[in-house]
Design goal:
With 93 residues, the protein is an alpha+beta fold. The protein contains 3 helices and 4 strands; from the N terminus they run H-E-H-E-E-E-H. The strands form 2 sheets. A two-stranded parallel ribbon has the order 1-2. A two-stranded antiparallel ribbon has the order 3-4.
Length: 93
């Protein structure tokens, strides 16, 4: 996903292949449920930095980018959370 695609998706709705999560200093553990759902379908995108409330998206940013990214990726690559390897690709836009 590039910057233009992300902006387009922010102006639309969450769908079955994208989910927005607020994660300024840490990510919500419910992101693992999203990973599980995506791994059982065609995959998708989790975007950390967006507050989703009452059908609206507000970009709140990620303050501790390295911590959020490293903690999340370590978790999904851990064998105690998922019973198969999750092929995750990270990017910062």
């Amino acid at each position: 996903m590039n910057r233009e695609e992300l902006i387009e998706r922010l102006n639309a709705f969450e769908w079955n292949d994208i989910e927005f999560k607020e994660a300024q200093r840490e990510f919500s553990k419910d992101a693992y449920k999203t990973v599980s759902a995506f791994s059982n379908t065609g995959g998708g995108h989790i975007v950390f930095c967006v507050k989703h409330e009452n059908g609206n998206h507000e970009i709140v940013g990620v303050i501790e980018v390295d911590k959020v990214q490293n903690d999340f990726l370590s978790g999904i690559r851990s064998s105690d959370k998922f019973n198969k390897l999750i092929d995750a690709k990270e990017s910062v836009i």
